[in-house]
Amino acid sequence: MISIKSEKEIELMRKAGYLVSLTHQYLKPFVKAGITTKELDNLAEKFIREHDGIPSCKGYEGFPCALCVSVNDEVVHGIPSNRKLQNGDIVTIDMVIGYKGYQGDAAWTYAVGEIDEEKKYLMEHTEQALYEGIKEVKPGTHIGDISHAVEVYATEHNLGVVRELCGHGIGTDMHEDPEVPNFGKPGVGPRLKEGMVICIEPMLNAGSRNVALLDDDWTVVTLDGKPAAHYEHTVLVTKDGYEILTPRLD
Ligand code: MF3
Ligand code: CO
After folding, report:
1. Residue 219 is assigned to a structural domain of this protein
2. How many domains are contained in the chain?
3. Nearest Cα residue to 5 out of 142, 137, 197
4. Which residues line ligand 1 (CB under 6 A)?
5. Residue 75 counted as domain residue
6. CA distance from start to end of the chain
7. What range does the domain containing 137 cover?
8. What tens-digit pLDDT sequence spans the chain (250 residues)?
9. Is 2 contained in some domain?
10. Atom in ligand 1 nearest the alpha carbon of residue 174
């Protein structure tokens, strides 16, 4: 069942989403060579709690931290550790924050210092793939229309589309119906209605689409070791289009 949010719920989801945006913006200047991914996690958790938010990833199915931090060939769900970021890395920070019972979810890939052309290309086109999906959002759109738009853009740009993970509905729970895959056919799947809220989140690889799960049972990596990027927004379906609830503040 896909929930339809009331005006009051939407107001809370806007606040949850905005806190996600604020936390990303707060972390950005810290994403530099030398910082450990656990230090980023500690900064985020403190910031989130100071703003009356709950870091919803922490404890979710046993995930130990507030942030998922995924470096280079790590696609998603990297566990913060004493790994130090290095010049030339790309790092995805993915977070879910609860605010008064409602969740916001957004992921961004950041460059650490100077990155090579392959990584630049990957980041730019993964972010654009997200917007290609978002552009489809309005009442009447099928989930497959979004999936297809992301897939076509990614494939045209020679990026590998990870199929094992997908976007999702969101509300009082971080993961609600429907699933929002990053590949699919137009006209297929449930139709959007005003008041639905979904997370669209392409995970794209510079190389092949194939991924593996590390022994920690969380970290998803590319099988060929090439870099991956991941961009995600929480998006509300409005009367005639969409509203991004996790706007970028830069
Ligand atoms: N932000 C991720 C998502 O979109 C989720 C987190 S996995 C967790 O689904 F376990 F860390 F919460
Ligand atoms: Co998500």
Report:
1. yes
2. 1
3. 197
4. 57, 60-61, 63, 68, 77, 94, 96, 105, 199, 201, 232
5. yes
6. 35
7. 7-244
8. 999 999 999 999 999 999 999 999 999 999 999 999 999 999 999 999 999 999 999 999 999 999 999 999 999 999 999 999 999 999 999 999 999 999 999 999 999 999 999 999 999 999 999 999 999 999 999 999 999 999 999 999 999 999 999 999 999 999 999 999 999 999 999 999 999 999 999 999 999 999 999 999 999 999 999 999 999 999 999 999 999 999 999 8
9. no
10. 9
